[in-house]
Every structure is written in structure tokens, then in C-alpha cells.
Amino acid sequence: MKILLTGANGYIGMRILPQLLKMGHEVVCAVRNEARLSVDDDMRSQIKVLEIDFLDAVVENKIPRDIDAAYFLIHSMSSSTKDFDEMEAITARNFNNYAKGTNIKQVIYLSGIVNDENLSKHLWSRKNVEQILYEGPFSLTVLRAGIIVGSGSSSFEIIRDLCEKLPFMITPKWVLTKTQPIAIRDVVKFLTGVLGNEKTYNDSFDIAGPDILTYKEMLHQYAKARGFKNWIWTVPVMTPKLSSYWLYFVTSTSYKLALNLVDSMKIEVIAKDDRLARLLGITPHTYMEAIDMAFKKIEQNLVVSSWKDSMISGRFNKNLEKYIQVPKYGILKDEQKLKIDDPKRVLNRIWKIGGQTGWYYGNWLWKIRGFIDKLVGGVGLRRGRTHPDKIFAGDALDFWRVLLADKKGKRLLLFAEMRLPGEAWLEFRIDKNNILHQTATFRPRGLKGRLYWYSIVPLHYFIFGGMIRNIAKNNS
Question: In degrees rounded to 5, what are phi and psi of residue 378?
């Protein structure tokens, strides 16, 4: 079959893409920016990529007519605290209009469990998108999932941050809300299992794991799985806004995502039946099994995708490509260069920068800068990086965003997503003479920006100088 995969560079899209290829399908990936599709050369040679923003006006003949089925995996919850529901409705209507020019027989939509009468804005929006897609010129299959647990998922990473960092927690009463988590592995099984299955056409199914747990129980079970204890007390006075700030400062989530998650955490998310699991012969994993599988992937450095690499985890939703040309005028620079003996080894060190590796010099200073950034509403350092030694354009890298990762051309270009009175780039490049160039470029915004730069020039002298020396040194 020829499959259209929208949201291909998202958390779910990156999980389902390799499975569709293994099943022998021809896959057309629809993304906003082709450069941000984080796949290796081998996988890229097996797919076709279309650049489409479903928020923009429909362009005729943009999607191939001979598409057999499509996955609708576009969500906007984390990009806004106010109008994400309107954005999601627009994308669904535009998708329907695109589909009119194709032969699509089935569309598969991953939604949320919406069995409670009082829905959060997030869950109401999911249900509204379902209704819009049902109006499209195709058969619709809707999978309604609860909390998805897997390496790199936003829910798992939030639980992980809370439990690993806070053995004692005073929490709002929403931690007593019941939910029914599902392993990411099972979500992928359901998504691929319904493909082309006419028994699932024009129907909506709940998908969930076997455990019905409160968020408090999920936190306790995570601690048990990791071999330690945690103590949790609930109080009725923590407002949604205060709860959101709590999640924002303690975990790696963005404030926008935290606010929308807290709004949804007040609603019970429990499946009404297991029709689809019986139809497809799938036995979902328990919550504890999902945690165990997630850590096996983490320990083996096999995390396929992470929500942190989504653009909504930082300051920009799109158009990062306009920053790929580093400005030459009206800027301030710190330039360092060193002759190196082993370009391959140095390049590998550059490709491991950030995350657990750190920044090769003054890591405690980087951590302080990250803490200050978090205090003023920035992303901080908690995003880390998804892979220990692989980098793709669009990846999050602590409080930087990868603009260009060209290992063959020996160049890495980062753009700062920290809060700054200006714009900042950090570039590493090895030239044909085996000279390592390290350049920090800052385009200040007014007098405040210039004062900021000159106030930290002494720190730059030590940090950037030490960083290039340690990257270039002989030991591995």
C-alpha cells in the first residue's frame, strides 16, 4: 500500500515509520520542514518527503493521487495555551480538502479517550477533530489512547523527572485522578493493525493497557520499578496555574504543555471497552512492563524519538530555516581555532556535545546558566539530547536547537533557545587544513543586548577557550 504519514517527524510518527517500511509499504511523509525529518540516509532513500503545513491554504495536487491510506498524527496542544483547538480544527479541515484530490480509502487518527462528560479543552479538541475527519471523503478509523508510556514520551519523561528528582512530593489533588496508561509499543501495534482492516472502518476504538491507576499510583509504581521509595502528600489548594509552574520548574516540559496537561489531568481517562484488542488479538502490556521496556531502550541508546525534539519544546514553532544563515553584520563574535591531528576523533567528540556528555568545560557554569534561563521562562538544560552520539537538524540539544548537522561536511550549527536580549549561534567546523573553528555569534537587540554580551565576555574567555581545547585534545 502507498501510505501518507502526516506528523512524520513527531513522537508517534517516528515510531510508526520504520514499522510501515518493514511491512513493505511505500511511505510518503508529510512534514513542515524536510530538513527536520530525523532519519538516516538509508531510511530517507526508502521514503518520499512532502513539505506541507496543514495550517496554510490548500495547494492543489500537492499530495499524490494514488495514496491508499493515511495517518493523521497532527496535534497542536503544546504550541499554544489558548487557540490550539482552533489550529487543530483548521488542520483537520485542510486535510479533508487535500484528501478530495486523492484516492485515499482509509484515514487513521490517533485521538484521546473521551468518555468523561466534562472534557478538558485538550480532549474536547481531539473529539472535535474526530467529527471533522468523519466528514472527509474516506473511511475513518479513530484510536483513542490514554497516557502513552515509552522512552521519550512526554508523560514518561515527566514522571521520570518527578520521581528521580523529588523523593518527597506535595502534590495537588489531581494526582488522585484515575487513568489507564498504554505502552508505546502497543500503540504502534494498534496503529499498524487497523491499517487496511475494513472491520475498523468508520468506527472509534479505545486503546489502553490493563491497569487503571491514579497518577499517584503511577508515581509510586515508577519508583518501585526503579528500586527506590517516594513519599507523596496531596493538598487541595494548588491551582492549575501553580501546578503548571511546578511541573515546568521540576521537569523538562514546556510551560504551555504543562498548563494543557494539568487541565487534562483533572479528567478521568479510562477505556470503556477492549473491542479492538480482541479484534486484533493484541494483549497490551502492564504499566510496569511499559516502564521496563522504556528503560531497556534508554540503556541501549535505542530511543527512536522524543517529544523534546518537537519544536514546541522550545521557543519556535517553525521557520527555523531562516536562521541557518549566520549574520555577518551588526553582530558580536567569539572566534576560536586550533590545529588538530585527528579530525574524525574530534568530529565524534563534537557530535556528543551536550546532554550527559556536557560542554567539555565549565559544566557547572552551563548548569547555572540553564537554571537562570528556567527562572526567566526559558527552556533550561533539562531537555538534554535524544541520542548520545547522533544529531539531526531540528533536534533539541539542552537549550540549543540544531540548525545544521553535516557530518560529511564537518559542520555543526546550533541556535540558542534560551532567553536572550538578542539571537545567538554556536558553530563548530573543521576545514580542509584540519583547523577546528569554534564560533559564537550574537546579534544583540538594542543597548540591552550589547550590555549583556560585554558583561559576560570574561566568562567567554574561559568557557569557549576551555571548550575548544578539550574538544581538540588527544585523549578520547
Answer: -90, -170
